[in-house]
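Case study 2.
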Amino acid sequence: MPVLTTTVDPTDGAHQAKRADLLDRIAAVDAEHAAAVAAGGAKYVERHRRRGKMLARERIEMLIDRDSPFVELSPLAAWGTQFHVGASLVTGIGAVEGVECAIFAHEPTVKGGTGNPYTVKKFLRLFEIAAQNNLPIISLVESGGADLPTQSEIFVPGGRQFRDLTNASAAGRPVISLVFGNSTAGGAYVPGMSDYVVMVKEGAKVFLAGPPLVKMATGEDTDDESLGGAEMHARTSGLADYLAVDEMDAIRIGRQIVARLNWRKRGPGPTLPADAPVHDPEDLLGIIPTDLKQPFDPREVIGRIVDGSRFDEFKPLFGTSLVTGWASLHGYPIGILANARGVLFSEESQKATQFIQLANQIDTPLLFLQNVTGYMVGKEYEQNGIIKHGAMMINAVSNSKVPHLTVNMGASYGAGNYGMCGRAYGPRFLFSWPNSKTAVMGGAQLAGVMSIVARSSAAARGRPFDEQADADLRAAVEDQIERESLATFMSGKVYDDGIIDPRDTRTVLGFCLSVIHNAPIEGAKSAFGVFRM
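Prediction:
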């Protein structure tokens, strides 16, 4: 397979300037991650430690295999909202006794681990990933239940977690709960719907209603331990399968349970050489512009993430605004679609459609590298069929059955977001780079469209046009779109699975490819919709 060449000069001034800009963006994202890792802050962390308890991430670190990675998902959930960044929940995928598991842990130092609307989005996304990729689920429980002031946004959608847990068990994907503290109200159903339950002696408390509510509802006087303590559930109710003496013992038992699952991946393992790229991934920082109007060659990116920088380009002379071709990543074969100049024309749409069908024929996962401003508009392009050709590409993406991975390298605007497998099109994983933006269109374009419409409306009614009001509105719209298209905003809404440093892209994607091969890899052989010709 051909090895990609490079024209990058790391000593070039423009390269150095782009590198500095992107490092600033990375530092800003790192600061937000640090806020999530800091949990509830020094006061609440110290109080939690005085009780002899570990933090959520510490529990995960003790649970997963030594020196193995943990890919945290949606760490910036709730960013920019009234809720603590991270949404009082840690979710991700890690290896336990060699088995890749979907793991979630409540963060009890943030409002007692209570869940808000973003917590719901976050754990439902994890359950979706677990279902798509055939992963066991491990819950590390210590939560006071729902954040009651926001119950109207939690109660109805949050009920899906219990359906998802039972569906996981029915599909043969074991659900394991390690209960360290409170698991009350609806949260009591998490261990109640698990295949295996471990409770920490004198720590776990599992009940539908605590002593105060029981008193109000029935008049009965009771206490935490007799109502829902770990020892009661181990000796009397039978809800606990194992009684742990402390948190580390609970984690030991959890690892022991996973070791006995006799788990086997259903997909094929890596089949190709997994040598490192020839070109240095460090160069990515100087290749990617933070000004999204500046173009860059996606081959320079591909050459720094795929095995040996090898890339067999498909249709290189046709539809050149989209690069397509075959490669491997950590030994796993993949097909790649990468935007070269932002706009998708009819030729690019037809090329993508054919390539996606070919990938499905040979059961090969697809990687979408987004930097797209949308499908081309204008009289010439409409007459040449851009609608039907764009629809053909979206049809192919929608009905493709091989796993999709998506990375937003820059812009992800308009229907281009759909054609390049945005969140609505079900990629197994979707990550963003810190410079990326996602919106219906750029702020200046949207403001300009609104201005043109308003100007036309005023002329049609014979009214004078207020230029100052128009300028103020355009500025406000541009500012709003700029804020709401940022990677941190989109990640806060759980519209991606996290913002990653471009230099980590190969590692993250390699881990994700390993994860998706827990399930069979089978393409759609004939189950596409009608392609309009």
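The chain has a mean pLDDT of 93.
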